[in-house]
Structures are given as structure tokens and as C-alpha cells.
């Protein structure tokens, strides 16, 4: 009986030490900007399904409002600073049919930018590698035409 209680106490002690480590890792595992730009990319795909498989036009943010749950679009790291937006639509895809874009590499549709405008349309040269993702290194969230999203580190 005593040995059973000792084993139970040991298991609870190990759980008390290990559990916070796993919870901390889970919290820091995914960049919130990934989820935000993924919602924008998904809304654009639904929009394209309704408009002959074409990417949105220049007023993309306004056009995507019916296709997303949250009317706000932008990098979550800007919210505490009282700012919004921070994403741009790639100028090369504006209004084009998804199938008409021929590229050997995946096509970036949305990306982070330093220019905080509601319906920002810009060339890829304006990709905003910023330090707002933490860690001290420059990074940028991007969404591709196939709805794959990722954080680019450095100047990939």
C-alpha cells in the first residue's frame, strides 16, 4: 500500500514538472500570423470559386469581407501597437485566373508588408521582412496560390 502511494506521488511529481514544459512548447509552436494570413488565403480561394477562378481585384480586402468570419485583416503583431492591415496582394495576380499563371515555383498571392494600407497591392519586391515575429531575426508570412502558408526567415 505504501509503495503504491509512493509510486503515485512520484508520477504526480513528474507530471507536475513535465506538464508546464509541454504547455509552453504548444503555445510557442505556431506563429499567429500563419493563422491570420491562412484565413485571408482561404477567403480568396472561396472568392475565386465564385468569380470564374480569378484572384480578387485591387480592392481585395473589401471584396473578401463576405468570405471571411472576421472583417479585420492583418498581422496580429500589429494589434497591440494600435495598427492594422500589414498584408498585400501580389500585383502579378490581381484579377487573373488561377490557371493562367505559369510559374516554375509556387506563386505568392499574399504577403506581409511594411506599408499598412487596407487594400495594399504591391510587387513581391515589397515583401516585408520584419522583426515583429520575435526572435530578433527578420521574417515574413506568405500565402501561396495553393493556400500553403509559411513564415520565411531571413531573406529567403
Q: Tags for this entry?
A:
five-stranded mixed sheet; 5 strands; alpha+beta; 156 residues; 2 domains
Task: Give structural notes.
This protein is α+β, with helices and mostly antiparallel strands and 156 residues long. The chain has two domains: 1-29; 31-153, no CATH class. The protein has three helices and five strands, in the order H-H-H-E-E-E-E-E. It has helices spanning 2-28, 32-50, 60-64, and strands spanning 87-90, 108-112, 121-122, 139-144, 149-153. It has a five-stranded mixed sheet with strand order 3-1-2-4-5, with helices on one face. The radius of gyration is 21 Å and the shape is elongated.
Give the helix level as a range of percent: 25-40%
The number of distinct helices, counting runs of at least 4 residues, comes to: 3
The strand order across the widest sheet is 3-1-2-4-5
Shape: elongated
Distance N terminus to C terminus? Answer: 61 Å
**Got a strand count?**
5
How many structurally independent domains? Answer: 2
Radius of gyration: 21 Å
Kindly estimate the percentage of residues that lie in beta strands according to DSSP. Answer: 5-15%
| Structural class assignment | alpha+beta
Largest sheet: 5 strands, mixed
Name the helix and strand elements from N-terminus to C-terminus, one letter apiece: HHHEEEEE
Q: What ranges have pLDDT less than 50 throughout 5 or more consecutive residues? A: 22-28
Mean pLDDT: 81
